[in-house]
Design a protein that fits this description.
It contains 17 helices and no strands. It is mainly alpha-helical and 380 residues long.
């Protein structure tokens, strides 16, 4: 594969495009084959699967001339593939299909184990080992996190503040947008502008706001400070003073998540039965009473989903801190501090793993409550 990409990189750009398209088409054909054609029953399909399982590894071996180490890997793959498809051909009770299904799922399961399960277990173990990984230290890494004056404690406190403020304001403002924009004449246009920040990456939004909050003496290039000067005020170092810098950074997340909340809540409001609203209106209720007693209960599951989603984003925020303050002036959070502890020299692997485990512990209740909410919604 590396040889193919090296050869491709040496071609002119206009020649690379059709080759990439053809290669992508071949991959898609193979995917469709293995998903749609290969699982079909019948002797002909079983023979075809057998030929593919044995023929493809041998063809790759002959074409590429792979070294002796990889040669044995291909031989084993051919033997295993041939054995599984032979069992599929001989089976009459359906067990062959189960074996075939397992064979198709095994690559994905292997990748999950390598890319998710193993790192999670390793991180859990490292959280209780020294920073150099040589010996067991118990809860010392967590003691460091919560010890007074440590960056871990500052990151923990800041993250809790993020989780309290950002989801509430983003969900609340999104709900207000959903209510008032739905009743406006230019609903579609307004929704496009409100949703636009969602399409911007957190890094891009952070860079935009970094220029917006910029603090210099002369000339003034920060728009916010320029407005302050127009009104006769003194420029403010928005990102250098704690806790003002944390509030300014939270505003960035709220700005990027409000459109997401607005879209989901607007859709939920449109799903509230009109009969319920009309019945409440006939009972003599005003607009606020109808909204609070009819609309809000009807969209409660969606509000919970939006709030939980933004809360999880707040817990693992990294991009905003990295692109603006770099964690300076006590603006760090758990996600950023976790990466920072691992990247400094020498790497503080134990501290980093402890912070990662702490993020996992904080996220778990939100996931559990969201699953419980969805289960209750299906039952209703």
């Amino acid at each position: 594969m590396s040889a193919f990409f090296s050869w491709l990189a040496g071609l002119p750009p206009l020649a690379q495009i059709p080759i990439v398209i053809v290669a992508f088409g071949i991959v898609m054909v193979l995917v469709v084959f293995f998903i749609e054609v290969a699982p079909r029953s019948g002797r002909g399909y079983s023979i075809m699967r057998l030929c593919v399982a044995i023929g493809v590894p041998l063809a790759v071996l002959l074409v590429l001339g792979i070294e002796a180490g990889a040669f044995w890997v291909l031989i084993i793959a051919a033997i295993l593939g041939g054995g599984l498809f032979w069992l599929d051909f001989r089976a009459r009770s359906g067990s062959g299909y189960v074996l075939q299904l397992f064979a198709f799922l095994s690559p994905a399961l292997l990748l999950l184990v390598i890319g998710l399960v193993y790192p999670a277990v390793q991180t859990f173990v490292n959280a209780f080992r020294s920073n150099d990984g040589t010996h067991f230290v118990g809860l010392d890494n967590f003691v460091w996190v919560f010890s007074g004056g440590s960056t871990g404690l500052i990151a923990f406190i800041n993250t809790i503040v993020w989780v309290i403020i950002a989801p509430v304001f983003a969900t609340g403002i999104g709900l207000l947008y959903a209510v008032f924009v739905d009743r406006s004449r230019g609903e579609k246009v307004l929704k496009v502008f409100i949703f636009m920040p969602v399409a911007i990456s957190l890094v891009g939004a952070s860079i935009i706001f970094k220029f917006f909050f910029d603090y210099t003496q002369d000339p003034q290039i920060g728009l916010l400070n320029q407005v302050v000067e127009w009104f006769g005020g003194t420029p403010v170092a928005w990102l250098q003073n704690y806790p003002l810098n944390m509030v300014m950074l939270i505003i960035i997340l709220i700005w990027t998540q409000t459109g997401f909340a607005m879209v989901l809540l607007s859709s939920a409001i449109k799903g509230v039965p009109t009969e319920q609203v009309e019945a409440a209106e006939l009972d003599g209720t005003n607009a606020w009473q109808r909204f609070w007693n009819v609309t809000v209960p009807g969209i409660r599951p969606t509000i919970i989903v939006v709030w939980i989603t933004i809360s999880i984003v707040s817990l693992k925020v990294y991009d905003i801190i990295a692109a603006t303050t770099g964690g300076q002036n006590d603006s760090t959070v758990l996600g950023y501090e976790m990466v920072k502890q691992f990247e400094i020299l020498p790497p503080q692997a134990g501290h980093s793993a402890a912070l990662a485990l702490l993020i996992f512990i904080l996220v778990t209740p939100f996931i559990w409550y969201n699953a419980r909410n969805l289960k209750r919604q299906r039952e209703e």
